[in-house]
Amino acid sequence: MRNHSYTSTHILAKEGWIYSILALMVFLIAYAFSFFAWFFFLLFLGTVFCYRNPERIAEEDDERCLIAPMDGVVTDISKISLNDNSEALRIVIRKSLFGVGVLRAPLAMTLSDVKNRFGLFMDSSSALFSNLSERKSITCKSQFASIKLVISAGLWSQKMTLFKKAGAFKAGERIGFLRDGEMALLLPLDTRVKVSLSDEVKAGATILGYLAYKDKDDK
């Protein structure tokens, strides 16, 4: 995963600028020579679509709510055991190639630790994906709980991008880019989940659930 400076709010994610320019140049050359110009125009539109960077507004503004960090479909909600013998609630979101690739912070948080596992860029539907794929595990700390984001790159990813920023990310703020793959959120067991299996979620907009209120007087 490459670390890039903090992203902008341009309508097209900067990770796709060079690809979009190249696709546009190829289209113009094909148009000038009347060589399958329609095909290369569709290719240009498809490239722009894959790297779109829309503004998103969360469905709620509760500071304990967990916002979807990635566009995709919920493929797993389960309790798992971790290496330190503790347990966590896992929510997995799988992204398609044509979903928005911008990753967003699920809540106000800081990135305290990033671990890399080098692997293969492979189909996320493969039975070997969880064991062999390129992966980043990110520990995130908020004022309510620590969570972990496990990002796995799919066949069409080529690379994963994590943005640099001094200080904390706000809930829904852009934190990185992934063209294809999946993300697992490892959450406290008492997290109240709002989504179900096969639900389609939108990064920065859909609410996945809520962190528990630990203090009886906290309202």
Q: How would you sum up this structure, described in words?
A:
The protein is α+β, with helices and mostly antiparallel strands and 219 residues long. The protein folds into 2 domains: 7-50; 65-210, Glucose Permease (Domain IIA) (Distorted Sandwich). 16% of the residues lie in helices and 34% in strands. Strand 7 (135-141) and strand 8 (146-153) form a beta hairpin. The chain is elongated, with a radius of gyration of 19 Å. One of its GO terms (molecular function) is phosphatidylserine decarboxylase activity. One of its GO terms (biological process) is phospholipid biosynthetic process. Keywords: Cell membrane, Decarboxylase, Lipid biosynthesis, Lipid metabolism, Lyase, Membrane, Phospholipid biosynthesis, Phospholipid metabolism, Pyruvate, Transmembrane, Transmembrane helix, Zymogen.
